[in-house]
Amino acid sequence: MTDIKAVLRAQHIETPSWAYGNSGTRFKVFAQKGVPRDPYEKLADAAQVHAHTGIAPTVALHIPWDKVDDYADLARHAREAGVGIGAINSNVFQDDDYMLGSVTHPSAQVRRKATDHLLECVDIMDATGSDTLKLWFSDGINYPGQDDIRARQDRLAEALAEVYERLGDGQRFLLEYKLFEPAFYATDVPDWGTAYAHCVKLGPKAQVVVDTGHHAPGTNIEFIVAFLLREGKLGGFDFNSRFYADDDLMVGAADPFQLFRIMHEVVQGAALHDLVGENEQSTKPFGGSAEGSAPRGVAFMLDQCHNIEPKIPGQIRSVMNVQEATAKALLVDREALSAAQADGDVLGANAVFMDAYNTDVRPLLAELREEMGLAPDPMSAYAKSGYFEKIAAERVGGQQAGWGA
Ligand code: PSV
Ligand code: MN
Ligand code: MN
Question: Where is the Xylose isomerase-like TIM barrel domain (predicted)?
Answer without folding.
Answer: 69-246
